[in-house]
User: What shape does this take?
Amino acid sequence: MDFIKDWFTNKNKTGCRFIVVDAYNNDIAINFYKRNGFSFSLIDGEQEKTRLMFFDLSLVKK
Assistant: This one.
């Protein structure tokens, strides 16, 4: 995950601001993304098969 974050922020080659994932809604996947700084895009969705999550690339220290 650190490689991906660095790739998108190093000299901002892509012009991207967010990484968005549609994570499987289970403890392993959700905890993985939370540990890597991702947040939920929507408050509800606990009953869904997947959860939309995002990471703000402007938070990466350069």
User: Anything to note?
Assistant: Residues 2-59 form one domain. The chain has one domain: 2-59. The longest strand covers residues 18-24. The beta strands are 18-24, 39-40, 50-56.
